[in-house]
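User: Can you recover a sequence for this backbone? Please restate the input before giving your answer.

Assistant: Of course. Working from this structure:
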């Protein structure tokens, strides 16, 4: 199918001559005697190439060019200008014309200009097709990458969970072995030890299941205007009995000058409960020295509140400290599930905050949560 060319010129003789030249160059020619006729043709026929004289009565070539580029921006326009009228030619190029030729017209110059315009159209079409294909390819590859990352995360989680379950199963097998020996030898001490081992690991399975359910629940943060110190006091009151049973003292160091802030006290309460409970467990095995957990608050100019939970336990080695927020990683041995700190980090992130751990062997551990506030109530 031949490419269409719309020739616009108010002189009949020039239209006839140029029509023959354009047709001989291999194009289908449509003609118009002025700009308005050209617009009527363009409204009903798709024409990729337009050749127009600049000097015409009524709507001149520049006004026609302006409307073509507004309504049919992909059409290539070649302007015909009188010899020496370079200013009009430059103005046409500035307005979006692809080329211009001067009178008197040479057949070769017209054919070259048409070929260049045709090449421009082909390059533009190829670029558009390439861009569309590239966008489709990027979309497909992005989907594949997201799916691969999701499967990798699932695989990592399943592997970590399997390791945690294997540890619990190993503990149960050990407990059952001691129980069997107690039954076989009718040894009450073996029976007591075996039962304690089984009871402990059943409790660990229950905690693991509950922690997984809690972690899987969608997080809904509900900020409200409240005293940022309130969650710290409530967590102290909640866990003080557990601490006393293990010989651990809970101490509050609250910044009473902190203003009322817009935060989620329930979410912060949950985070502090996890951290303080871990801190108590970290202190319980100390054979000497004070067993103490400190809950501290501080204000950052009303923009955020900082919570610190510090213990006097054995501390955490540097190579382990980098893993404490990983899935199912625990420093409690058979007592931990490895989900508490992971869930705490998730909750802190949902609140737009940050959490960090600092520790050294024999120096205790400090976990710091920083929570931003949206508004300060005066």
């Amino acid at each position: 199918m031949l490419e269409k060319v719309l020739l616009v010129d108010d002189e009949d003789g020039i239209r006839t001559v140029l029509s023959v030249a354009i047709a001989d160059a291999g194009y289908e020619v449509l003609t118009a005697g002025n700009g308005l006729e050209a617009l009527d043709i363009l409204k009903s026929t798709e024409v990729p190439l337009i050749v127009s004289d600049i000097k015409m009565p009524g709507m001149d070539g520049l006004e026609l060019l302006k409307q073509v580029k507004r309504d049919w921006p992909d059409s290539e326009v070649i302007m015909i200008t009188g010899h020496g009228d370079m200013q009009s030619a430059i103005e046409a190029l500035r307005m979006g014309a692809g080329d211009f030729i001067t009178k008197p017209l040479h057949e070769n110059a017209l054919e070259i200009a048409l070929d260049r315009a045709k090449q421009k159209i082909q390059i533009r079409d190829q670029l558009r097709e390439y861009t569309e294909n590239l966008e489709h390819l990027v979309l497909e590859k992005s989907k594949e990458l997201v799916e691969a990352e999701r499967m990798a995360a699932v695989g990592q989680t399943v592997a970590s969970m399997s390791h945690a379950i294997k540890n619990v199963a190993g503990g149960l097998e050990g407990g059952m072995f001691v129980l069997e020996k107690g039954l076989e030898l009718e040894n009450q001490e073996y029976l007591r030890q075996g039962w304690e081992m089984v009871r402990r690991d059943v409790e660990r399975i229950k905690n693991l299941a509950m922690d997984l359910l809690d972690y899987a629940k969608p997080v809904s943060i509900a900020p409200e205007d409240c005293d940022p110190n309130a969650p710290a006091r409530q967590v102290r009151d909640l866990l003080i009995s557990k601490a006393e049973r293990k010989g651990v003292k809970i101490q509050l160091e609250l910044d009473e000058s902190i203003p009322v802030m817009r935060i989620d006290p329930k979410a912060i309460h949950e985070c502090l409960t996890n951290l303080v409970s871990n801190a108590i467990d970290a202190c319980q095995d100390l054979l000497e020295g004070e067993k103490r957990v400190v809950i501290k608050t501080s204000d950052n100019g009303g923009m955020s509140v900082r919570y610190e939970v510090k213990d006097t336990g054995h501390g955490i080695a540097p190579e382990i400290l980098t893993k404490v927020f990983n899935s199912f990683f625990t420093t409690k041995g058979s007592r931990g599930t490895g989900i508490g700190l992971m869930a705490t980090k998730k909750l802190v992130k949902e609140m737009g905050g940050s959490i960090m751990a600092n520790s050294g062997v024999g120096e205790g551990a400090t976990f710091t949560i920083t929570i931003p506030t949206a508004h300060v109530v005066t």
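That completes the design. The first helix runs from residue 12 to 24.
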